[in-house]
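Example 3.2
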Amino acid sequence: MTLSTASAAHYQNLKFDYVKPVEITQSTASTHPVIIVGAGPVGLSCAIDLARQGIQVVLLDDDNCLSVGSRALCFAKRTLEIFDRLGCGEQVVNKGIAWNVGKVFFKDDPVYTFNLLPEQGHQRPAFVNLQQYYVEGYLYECATQYPQLDLRWKSKVIVLEQNESCAKLTVETPDGSYTISAQYVIAADGSRSSVRNLMGLESKGRVFRDRFLIADVKMQADFPTERWFWFDPPFHPNQSVLLHREPDDVWRIDFQLGWDADPEIEKTPEKVIPRVQALLGADVKFTLEWVSVYTFACMRMDKFQHGRVLFAGDAAHGVSPFGARGANSGVQDADNLCWKLAMVLKGLAPQALLSTYGDEREFAADENILNSTRATDFITPKSKISKLFRDAVLDLSKHHPFARRLVNSGRLSLPSTYSHSVLNTPDQDVFAGAMCPGAPLLDAPMRLQEKDTWLLPHCGEKFSALVFTDEQSVAEEIEKDMQSLPDIECLVISKTALKLNNTLCLQDHQSLLTARLDAQVNTTYFIRPDQHVAARWRSFNVSSIQQAWRTATAQ
């Protein structure tokens, strides 16, 4: 049985084999290009991404199992697109529960309904709900395909030192300790990061005086596949409740508890079961799969890069769960970091490129923290005046659309646009739409040799130039000119079916890509390996593309 067909029980009982490290067997120190600490979704994503680019990676984890409970449940469209590139997107979508629609309730009344992806023409839904252990299992299965990826379980980092040339780690195992070095270390070891603590660093921010109970409940229910959020419901008065569907007939329920609640007592079945019964009804049969209590906090490190150590995911930043910004932003950290690190290690870009990881992802973290903080303040008002304002907004929202923009039950995760990045080439021409330099490229349905496909699977891991033309002769000239830029993949986009010898021709048969990119004849988009727009022009010019490549690689 492969992990892709395994049951939830199998995942939760799965133990990975510890293997005695060669450094202990041979009593020799070794140096590697990259060591990653932490084999959660972020660490595994980093390891796979680097291995795909031919980089030797050692991945260390102090445990030997997958995570327990649903944890990071909601995986956003942009994260699914990254998983597609890493090789497990289809598994996540097929197993997960896809949803686009959410509903907000005040007391017993519906306030309004929203659709996060109302338009057609996207390969992936707005969100997929899937327990974190499944995602980790699929990523692990991908990781095992790469011989250049050395995954070591029960390997705890207890010392970290660095100098100008490398970082040196002391790793504790069941067979004793050993020393291992790397040109770079990625710390993806969670909110209680041992690497961060060993380096004497900290995350700073705000802890909110409130607690929430998470209950994974297994039951048969006919609720629709939607996100339901209640403010002050009769079954849990003066608090809030969130309901989500998961695979395997499991439902995730979040109950606001208040700051004075005792976390240990609230996790007991005697306290949890009556809360669930109040929501579902006394006659509904269910079982508890996993229960946890958490405190809201929005934190981040001042800097994500410290010498040769780069922090990603919860090790670098943390937000309150409403909005699904934790794991999604962490996977997007990996997406931003790994192409830059690979280019530096291969000698294709200067170390200055790595500093832009911090610049761009610190901006993204601030954006997530701002949205999460605003959601938390709306969900858990801390004064009579703020509660009065919130309740008035909810009342108005039942009948007045303008008030619905003020309702905040968690602004759901969206990828950041690095509009101020030094890697962008600023617009010289006038464009409409959101696809400015720094924005993540939107997907669109395409045709390739009369077969249906999508745009994004043909972009990524290399720089790409998308050039729009419907003329065969012009396309042939573009192909000829692009031969001078072998490190950049060219994609010709046309309304009609064109064919070239060595250049991919995609047919925009529904004209959706043309509309989303506000494209005209000869419009050119230059795309980074992480599928963010780096530059765009109204004309095709090889010299402009070459200069944009230098800018996007910090040269």
